[in-house]
Amino acid sequence: MRVIVFTLFGLVVSGCTTISDLKQPTVQQHFVLEQDYTHSRIRGLFKYRYIAGLRAGTYSLVGEDSDGKYFASMGDCVIYYSPELPVPPSTSDKMGGIYIPNSRSDDPRLFTETRNTTDGSYAGVTGMMIVSATEDSIIYAPFEDQWEFVSSLNIKSGQAENAVCNKTNKQINKD
Which of 17, 79, 110, 170 is the most exposed place for a label (fewest CB within 10 A)? Predict the structure, then answer.
């Protein structure tokens, strides 16, 4: 029990990275994705198929770190779910997008901001502290072996008019 309490305390004290914690971009860049892009991959202990990708829309450079750049849009932008699990795909009105590393030895990753559905009060003060520390933190989803997709993005200089995702039925699937 003591280990659990110290682990939770460490998580609360350390906090998590948020979009606002990232270094502001030195240049303005964006890309427009004309169609939803998804790919599937078998993963996990039970070998479930996961669908991962981005919805059509405009993605703007929102932050960077020493290893890469974060392109994001507002709305339900990131697609990540398993059709084989009884959990519905998550939806969010928060920011999400793609992290593009500087080095091709690293894989691109999808990311979204955490959206806590409760204030954590059901778990007492500790629960409320955890919720507070994780709100708006970045959650990553694997998007490995997608350098061909990343290379196809037409990243333009300048500010985008409106960085919002579109819900479409058009999809480019790559299995």
Answer: 170
